[in-house]
Amino acid sequence: MAKLSDLKARSIKPGDRNIPDGTVTGLRPEAGNSKGHGKWMLRFVSPETGKRRDMGLGTYPDVSIVDARKAAVAARDLIHDSQDPIEARRSTKASRQADVDAMTFEQAARKVHEDLKGGWKNPKHAAQWLTTLETHVFPLLGKRKVMDLRARDFANTLKPIWRDMPETASRVKQRCNAVMDWCMAEELIQGNPIGVVSKLLGKQAGKRERVIHQPSVPWKDVPALISDVIHCGKPSLSKVMLEFLILTAARSGEARAITWGEVDLTEAVWTVPAERMKTKTSHRVPLSDRAVEILRTQQKKS
User: Fold this and answer.
1) 33 with 14: CB under 8 angstroms?
2) What are 209-221's pLDDT values in tens digits?
């Protein structure tokens, strides 16, 4: 029997009958209402009832010949295992619908977090991603089914922090959006309501209005700061750290994590390793005589 080709399938006219695929037993395209269109059908005998049945596998050309054959082979495999493929499909759809009906926002969020956290380099960020949802979203929406959630639900959840904690609110909104995008991709919901949530919350203050800059010391007054504040009164580790930061122009996090293995007091160089640098490249910091003196003093105390 000759295999069905695209050329032959495109030439099928309304009224044509009995055009077998030629590769999978029982597979054939039934002519549609116009030339070149038809419904894929698989005829088989149910191993469960012994009756003849026809199973639809989609329409041509939306479902290609290759894809129809793959679906037919999969159905034949089920028949070989004494399963009725139509009943198996119904069972799968029912199970899928049960998942849709049961999935809550918290369950979906934890699944998304589990998928995403492997790609984050910073464990702290991975933990914060879920913590913000646990704090601001789960108490109100965690037990709600994702299929029932609307824009107003998320707006009511975000409203208490939308203006007072704008940066946190924006991050929470982004994470809710990621969860609902995943739900839409999984066909648990028809659309993502997060896109219109901002319309229900009003405009946040701009970053310029939110940022409060701390006053800085003019560079000409730094010597006075060191003599009148850092070197005045009872000495403390905080004062020593501040002076060391001024002398090295380093970030506080880099100085707090410094180890003796990074410092060469003879050459007066402090080498910050790449893994502790924001740019992920090692950084050599020249040390002044006073910076070396500070480190020697601390080394004696350690």
Assistant:
1) yes
2) 656 777 888 989 9
